[in-house]
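Q: Given only this backbone (625 positions), what sequence would you predict?
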């Protein structure tokens, strides 16, 4: 793998622009966490100075008059301030951590909401999925991505406040002069000496974060390796525990594949891996040099302050105050530079998240409400509809014209890749046509409010998904009416299984949220998915390969009761099994994205030159005519 992340270095101006955009996002989405974070940072920057000031007064008194009353006063004030500061700090920290405990989930919700708003065709785009996967791995591994602006800006604010407070407390240091009795040490008060000392302190305080920032930038440039390692380790470390492949692991000894990721010393995180080599080499040297520069700075501060105290410029108590204040000023400068450097190393990861959230939503969002009709008299018409996937050269559908008769049962058949599922997704307005138009009761469906339009359809997709909730919640897509839930489950042939469940419709599917949950077979799960479509009671019911996971007996049961299941709804049935289409009123035959035939089963079968006849005879060996 190449260090592709290293090429993403942004200009400082662009990096700060990205950081500010992320901060505005945080302020909009999690304002209470942002405010708590700033309060914690400001308080933590200011609070140490109270202890420094009171300690200096106490030491002055100990080194001077040693007045017991004053000693008690200063000691009491120091203890009281320490107690108040500790209490306030604990309360602020508690509030911040309580609010930020769910921050990761809150940012996850931001991405989820974006997926719900995003054009569905983009949700299916592998590049978009890969983009989101990279964001997730950055968050779960090195902990980088949107939301980090709070930490960086909080650190910058803390550093600035610390610098200003320290300067205020150290001002008297520069006003304190070495008396004539100090002799040659009076040179310490000369402007040139002050400038030299300030320059050395500033240089040392700048050198440390510069070295540390360079170390972090090098580590950030290997983020691609970090993501890969997390993905590989996450997959292979628990290979034997994955229930769907547990049998294969045992039969074929697949755990041996994991050895190179778990025990090979050349692994990314192990002793012979990339990170170990980095920290034994350049990264380790930079980190050590940064620490040494920090100690050098401390030595310069102590030397200069102590020399002035020795020369008589101020008392020993002031030494405590000035050393601590100047140290905190320089430490603040180091933190300021360090966090400023982090802006550039973090910005590419933040930008990934912001770019994802800024993916344009191009589907037109209409505002018309769909007429609510008790008689379900909804008519849909395709007029010369063509569709081409983004980036594709060929059309997935071409010049499809089709009208749905109200209350009829339409079968859509064809070989894999003929455009059946694309047709259904266009009907449900998950896609918009590239050419042509789709009408609902004579109005272009793009003019309808999407949420309102979706209510017209209940769909069982081929790749349907059931959440790990109880049956009642799954079927009703919420709390729902228990009696209706049970009725729908029994209509689709789930009654026998339902009677055997320990808690009936309150039984949870899988054990993810309930230890007493049950695992359903593929056919049982598909029946639940069909029951969910029935419960919605939409005018259109669409079944995309609804019996793919059912055994022959269960499949025959669904066919036998299909008229009862669909009721007075307009039903659309997609299948590549032609034997399942005989009960439908009309059949549309798709081939290479076009409707090549349309009619009843008998009429289409009688056309010996047609596609339907060819498909029927190709499958005839699998069913009885």
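A: Predicted residues:
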């Amino acid at each position: 793998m190449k260090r592709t992340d290293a090429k993403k270095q942004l200009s400082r101006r662009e990096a700060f622009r990205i950081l500010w955009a992320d901060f505005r996002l945080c302020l909009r989405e999690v304002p209470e966490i942002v405010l708590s974070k700033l309060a914690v940072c400001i308080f933590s920057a200011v609070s140490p100075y109270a202890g420094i000031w009171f300690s200096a007064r106490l030491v002055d008194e100990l080194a001077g008059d040693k007045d017991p009353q004053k000693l008690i006063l200063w000691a009491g004030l120091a203890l009281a301030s320490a107690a108040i500061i500790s209490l306030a700090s604990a309360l602020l920290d508690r509030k911040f951590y309580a609010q930020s405990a769910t921050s990761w989930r809150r940012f996850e919700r931001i991405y989820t909401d974006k997926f719900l708003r995003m054009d569905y065709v983009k949700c299916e785009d592998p590049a978009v999925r890969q983009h989101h996967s990279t964001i997730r791995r950055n968050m779960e591994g090195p902990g980088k991505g949107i939301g980090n602006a709070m930490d960086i800006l909080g650190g910058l604010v803390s550093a600035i406040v610390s610098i200003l407070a320290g300067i205020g407390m150290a001002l008297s240091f520069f006003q304190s002069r070495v008396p004539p009795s100090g002799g040659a040490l009076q040179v310490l008060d000369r402007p040139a000496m002050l400038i030299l000392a300030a320059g050395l302190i500033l240089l040392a305080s700048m050198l440390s974060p510069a070295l540390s920032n360079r170390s972090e930038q090098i580590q950030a440039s290997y983020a691609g390796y970090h993501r890969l390692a997390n993905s590989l380790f996450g997959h292979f470390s628990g290979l034997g525990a994955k229930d769907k492949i547990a049998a294969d692991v045992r039969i074929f000894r697949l755990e041996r594949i994991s050895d190179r990721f778990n025990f090979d010393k050349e692994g990314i995180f192990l002793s012979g891996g990339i990170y170990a080599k980095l920290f034994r080499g350049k990264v380790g040297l930079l980190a050590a040099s940064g620490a040494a520069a920090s100690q050098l700075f401390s030595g310069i501060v102590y030397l200069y302050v102590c020399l002035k105290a020795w020369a008589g410029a101020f008392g020993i108590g002031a030494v405590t105050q000035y050393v601590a204040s100047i140290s905190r000023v320089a430490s603040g400068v180091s933190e300021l530079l360090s966090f400023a450097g982090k802006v550039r190393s973090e910005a590419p990861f933040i930008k990934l998240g912001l770019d994802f959230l800024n993916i344009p939503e191009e589907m037109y969002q209409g505002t018309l409400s769909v007429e609510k009709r008790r008689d379900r008299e909804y008519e849909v018409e395709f007029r010369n509809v063509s569709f081409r996937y983004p980036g594709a050269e060929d059309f997935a559908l071409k010049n499809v014209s089709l009208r749905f008769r109200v209350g009829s049962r339409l079968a859509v058949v064809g070989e894999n890749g003929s455009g059946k599922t694309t047709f259904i997704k266009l009907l449900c307005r998950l896609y918009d046509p590239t050419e042509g138009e789709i009408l609902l009761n004579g109005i272009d469906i793009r003019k309808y409010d999407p949420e309102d339009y979706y209510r017209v359809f209940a769909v069982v997709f081929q790749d349907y998904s059931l959440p790990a909730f109880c049956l009642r919640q799954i079927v009703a897509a919420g709390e729902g009416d228990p009696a209706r839930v049970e009725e729908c489950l029994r209509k689709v042939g789930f009654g026998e299984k339902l009677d055997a469940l320990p808690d009936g419709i309150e039984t949870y599917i899988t054990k993810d949220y309930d230890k007493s949950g049950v695992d359903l077979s593929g056919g049982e799960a598909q029946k639940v998915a069909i029951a969910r479509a029935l419960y919605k009671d939409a005018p259109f019911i669409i079944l995309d390969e609804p019996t793919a996971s059912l055994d022959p007996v269960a499949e025959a049961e669904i066919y036998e009761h299909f008229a009862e299941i669909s009721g007075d709804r307009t039903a659309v049935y997609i299948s590549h099994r032609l034997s399942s289409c005989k009960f439908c009123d009309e059949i549309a035959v798709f081939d290479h994205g076009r409707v090549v035939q349309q009619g009843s089963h008998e009429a289409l079968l009688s056309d010996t030159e047609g596609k339907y006849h060819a498909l029927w005879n190709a499958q005839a060996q699998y069913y009885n005519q």
